[in-house]
Structures are given as structure tokens and as C-alpha cells.
Design brief:
mainly alpha; 4 helices
Length: 81
Amino acid sequence: MAYVRTVAPEESTGLLKRLYDAAIRRAGRVWNVVRLMSINPEALKGSIDFYRVLMYGDSPLSRAQREMIAVVVSRANSCHY
């Protein structure tokens, strides 16, 4: 298995700490998919912003339909996220 260096929440500072703190408020923890981008907080912020637009922005698809698509794509990719 590949190794990816990450920054633990207790070691985070600046933008990364703010992103981690927001993740904890949303989900009660910092999920690994978020930690994977921790060495580049700007990329992590961009990813979170992109996700929000896709899942919550204006769309002809309902939130439930978007979640269903995400589940199907994750399953097709053998991804448990």
C-alpha cells in the first residue's frame, strides 16, 4: 500500500487548522479523505469548495439524486468513501 504523508489535526496551523476545525464541526472528526490533502491546504480548500458547489449548488438534480450518483460512482470505483 502506498504511503501519503498527512498532517494530524493536533499539528495543523493556519488555513489547514481552520479547514480541520470546520470538518470537525460538520462531521465530528477529520475523515481520511480530507487528511490526504493536508500537505496542500489550498488544494484541500479548493476540493471542499468544489464539493459544496457540486452537492449544494443550483442544479436540476436533487440533493438525493446527487448522493445516489456519488454512491454508484464510488461503488464502480471500489471506493468505500
